[in-house]
From TrEMBL:
Gene that specifies this protein: coaBC_1
Ranges in a coiled coil: none
Family matches, as Pfam families: Flavoprotein (PF02441)
Flavoprotein domain residues: 38-150
Enzyme class: ligase
EC number: 6.3.2.5
Alphabetically ordered keywords of this record: Ligase
Protein name, as recorded: Coenzyme A biosynthesis bifunctional protein CoaBC
Length: 266
């Protein structure tokens, strides 16, 4: 985990504790800013990093629902998901009813570990698994779909470390062409350690977060508190405008920084 992501996670925990100490509702208990469907296929390359990336998204108020393919049920498992992402996180398995309502409610669909097998199925528009069906239907619904492509990339650094670089040229080209095809379908491929950053960018674009929220000028001296910033974040804005002389509480500044909201004076 790099320093920026570590700071993000530590900041979220500090905010939670400060909110409890000051009698405010912790950020995690507020209404979620975003909802995401995270579909795990059966790969292990980049798996631990992907879980840290999802925690970083939770830290900015993203409610996650996890889908496990049959292979992921064995490789990842429900217990590990709950240990890393929270015991109350909804988990869909191959035995669960089709999670259509979660797909429709999601602001974004994430594939934290895209395997070569899943990439090949998607490249040929095969919907013979729940994971592939959800991904294809997400594209048909116009939802942003992001996939960490490390496990599907024949030239990924992990494979180089494991001396798996003797792939025949024709096979390497076929695997790379699968990735090119699904990228052309609209799946945004990203390195696993950039998954959270790419998701934040996509969510901001999806929610038009550059639109400012302008606070009305009050008769008395105005205070911008943590709750006001939370409401602004939940509306999907990226800017809060306040009048000169407005007092901004320290916790409000922390939440604004964590939610990537700019506080500007008129």
């Amino acid at each position: 985990m790099d320093n920026e992501k570590l700071v993000e996670l530590v900041t979220a925990e500090v905010m939670r504790r400060l909110g409890s100490a000051q009698g405010e509702k912790p950020l995690q208990t507020a209404a979620p800013l975003y909802t995401a469907l995270a579909i795990f296929t059966g790969g292990s390359i980049g798996l631990e990093t992907s879980l840290e990336e999802l925690k970083a998204l939770q830290a900015i108020g993203t409610k996650l629902t996890v889908v496990l393919s049959q292979a992921a049920e064995t490789i990842v498992g429900e217990n590990w998901i709950k240990e890393k992402l929270g015991s109350d996180i909804p988990i869909i398995t191959s035995q669960s009813p089709y999670p259509g309502k979660y797909l429709r409610a999601a602001d974004i669909v994430l594939v934290p570990v895209l395997t070569q097998n899943t990439a090949a199925k998607l490249a040929h528009t095969l919907s013979d698994t729940m994971a592939c069906t959800l991904i294809i239907q997400a594209l048909m619904l116009g939802k942003p779909v992001l996939a960490a492509a490390n496990a599907a990339d024949p030239q990924d650094g992990w494979r180089v470390q494991k001396e798996m670089t003797k792939t025949p040229p024709a096979l390497r080209e076929a695997l790379q062409n699968n990735l090119k095809k699904i990228a052309a379908f609209g799946i945004e491929l990203t390195p696993v350690d950039s998954l959270a950053a790419a998701a934040k960018k996509a969510l901001r674009k999806e929610t038009n977060s550059d639109l400012p929220v302008i606070l009305d000028k009050p008769a008395k001296k105005q205070v911008l508190d943590a709750e006001a910033v939370r409401r602004a974040a939940q509306s999907g804005t990226g800017i809060v405008k306040i009048e000169q002389g407005t007092l901004v509480t320290p916790l409000a500044r922390d939440i604004a920084r964590e939610s990537h909201i700019d506080i500007v004076y008129n």
